[in-house]
Amino acid sequence: MFNFSSKTIVNREFKVSEFLKQIRADKEVKANSKNVKKIIFQNVINADSINVEEDSKYKIIYVIKMELEEEVIPKLFIEAIDKSMEFHTYFIFECDGRVASTVAYKEIGKSIRIGNYYGHGFHQDELVDLPRINSVGDVYKQILAYEIGIRARKNELPSDYISRVNLIKKLEFQISKTSKAILCETQPKKKFEYNERLRKYKKELNELREVEG
């Protein structure tokens, strides 16, 4: 997991039953939470705790750790938490000394919009250092980049990063689809058109993946 500043550590523990009540969990979410032994608000990342200027859009990130009975991530439970709470979240799961993690890009405004979840499955824990950051938004972007596996650009906002990720995923799908079409195509003219399209997609993909430094 990330080697966050010691000033961000809070380690405030909650009972699962208290948390379920707080988020008004339905039967499915309650059943999904049975694997959770303990919930700990491990880190609070804000301007004060990481000594940066206030970020108007990304004010706070809670790193929430769950100790589990088995190596099964309670997906419905974490989705319910995200939907009910107006702050950004990063989930860490621990079971018998192994850890997993997940995050979804979350837009907070008049309503809460949550994108796809990305993460690492259970593995032996290792510390990941953050690069130089200037805002809470930078931390959030680096968390997303670590979990998604696509490097972030220095000056892009988290929203811009996610837009670029979505374009990359779309192009990867188009490349895969076009490559399969080339293998199946027998007409030379059509095959040539597919190859031209494939070269264009790959060029666009390389440009989207480029980062400075």
Description:
The protein has 213 residues and is of the alpha+beta class. 42% of the residues lie in helices and 27% in strands. It has two domains: 6-149, no CATH class; 163-209. It is built from seven helices and six strands, in the order E-H-H-E-H-E-H-E-E-E-H-H-H. A six-stranded mixed β-sheet has the order 1-2-3-4-5-6, with helices on both faces. Helix 5 packs parallel to helix 6 (158-184). It is globular, with a radius of gyration of 20 Å. The mean pLDDT is 92.
Secondary structure tally: strands: 6
Count of discrete domains? 2
**What order do the SSEs take from the amino end to the carboxyl end, as H and E?**
EHHEHEHEEEHHH
Strand coverage percent: 25-35%
The structural class is alpha+beta
Radius of gyration equals 20 Å
Mean pLDDT: 92
Low-confidence stretches: none
Helix content estimate: 40-55%
Largest sheet: 6 strands, mixed
Strand order of the largest sheet: 1-2-3-4-5-6
**What spatial form do the alpha-carbon principal axes imply?**
globular
Number of helices, where a helix is a run of at least 4 consecutive DSSP H or I residues: 7
For the record, give the distance between the C-alpha atoms at the N and C termini, rounded to a whole number: 24 Å
